[in-house]
Design goal:
Distance between the termini: 37 Å
Helix content: 40-55%
Number of domains: 2
Order of helices and strands: HHHHEHEEHEEEEEHEEEHH
CATH architecture of the largest domain: 2-Layer Sandwich
Strand content: 15-25%
Structural class: alpha+beta
Radius of gyration: 24 Å
Amino acid sequence: MNVDDLRLLVSDLDSTLRSIEAVVDVPSKKTAIADLEQQAAAPDLWSDQEHAQEVTSSLSRLQAEVERVEELRGRLDDCGVLIDLGTEESDADTLAEAETGLAAIKPEIDALQIRTLLSGEYDDRDALVTIRSEAGGVDAADFAEMLLRMYLRWADRHGYSAEVYDTSYAEEAGIKSATFTVRCPFAYGTLSVEQGTHRLVRISPFDNQGRRQTSFAGVEVLPVTEETDHIDIPDQDIRVDVFHSSGPGGQSVNTTDSAVRITHLPTGIVVTCQNEKSQIQNKAAALRVLQSRLLERARAEKEAEMRRLKGDGGNSWGSQMRSYVLHPYQMVKDLRTEYETGNPVAVFDGEIDGFIDAGIRWRKTRENE
């Protein structure tokens, strides 16, 4: 890359980073950090553990956000200095160092720009994800399990915390459904573009005649509720059932009735949790899942009412959204964004950032229309 190209790249990245800095609003974030630091230093902070965790978590998140922007600004400015020095001294090594630095910075700035597009009401929340097998029999159940592994691998690749709350195993292979949380900044805003129906086309490993099979799995993504959401669930509105936790094929993994199923009587919503060893812990986790589903139900009803008032009777964009084709050719394609790759193996191993980024940009474009 010649000097003019390097300077052009610095200019482009500088423009993008300035727009990010404007959205992040570093000065206001630093003011908030100073206030949280004062609260964190209070000697009685941990007398209220819930408040203390909220303060320390918010402080850590804001500090990380500001540090990331400031670090990228410093590295980009350093690359500009290297280009000036390399040009003045005709030093090819210095210019090469600048080029290497810019190559490393560009994807980080691009990723941060994606984050600034997440401005929805609940986008900064943790995500509650449920995967369900749909049409396609045993292939659909196997596909649902492939998707579960894909998202858990994606979280693992990024160092994000993921916790499986409940897994309902199918009789022959795969899963009927699974519910898990992903805990990281903007998990809901990031993963919400994965919501919808996923389609798999392949030669079925469960068909002794080797025929091609099309199967479907649904992905639901909800924001995890917080104390401020005030989702009131009266005791008389729920029925709580307990049962033995179980694993694949009905194998017992617990000899006591620790698993919990909660039915919300007014809506018919049913949630289960059997990941924890304690019935109390499973009930608490199941209630969190129920609260998230009720929160999403209220949000969806509000959105439907707004569409009705606007005269928009169309369906949500998140219906059938991605095809995974393993036969007669290899391709994974997003049906909304047209983003695609010819490497399904990598996708199923958690390499889905390209799809997520394209989905976030596509959604933002739709919102601005």
